[in-house]
Amino acid sequence: MVLPMRCGDGLIEKGARWEELKNSRTIQMERSRLAYLEKIKDVGQLIAGNEYSGSLGLDHAVYSYGATGRFHPAALIAAIKFAQSLWDKKRVERFTDVRAAFEEFLVRHKSFINQLGHSMGSRMRSVDSLLEMYGIILEGILAGDLTDEEIIARFQASPHLQTLKEPTDPEPDRLVRKRFSKAVQSAGIVREILSSRAKCTECGARLPPSSRSKDHKTPIEEGGMGTLDNLQFTHPYCNSGYKEKRRRSTAEGM
Ligand SMILES: [Zn+2]
Q: Where are the domains of the chain?
């Protein structure tokens, strides 16, 4: 009688331990899954959304779509990595100073996203090439009065960007049809979105509706009220210390 009881006790004990182990493994898996999702959320918030004050609210119409209105996953990943690297290198403020000019450059040369986004091998290589291109454009714009041609000439230094060029004829005759192709329709939609986007009142760059931050024109501390007249929209980052910093440096410079 004793032995089976012991054996049973042992089994129960083993079973309990197994359950415990299984539960802790499940909990661990859930925890790491949650941590992973949180990380994705954090990274996603770097570029979009309006809840996180560090969100740059990067416009997918600017960063993720090419000249033909095609969505490029590699360009979306590159935009996330670009935002992450700006934070890591503490360059978000400098970027925001010239952000409008930087993004206008991308819009003027959207075909570069097409060329790098899908025609140069693997997706990660595309991401790296896009990141390299963003870096060169940003440095070129921060350098001052460079023309687009002068910035594009700097691509020659990179083996991945050397072949980039503006298409001389975006729609060769043989491709033009009487009916609007899907590509032409998509390009038309992206063009319309880009031209009708509101601009951030702080940095002047495009402001997607999903990343609007409500901002008091006259700050609450200075008597500003929640009236329609006193409402303006900015990127979350532009409304979280950047604005005040810029005002202070303008005031000091006066
Ligand atoms: Zn802004």
A: 60-166+180-198
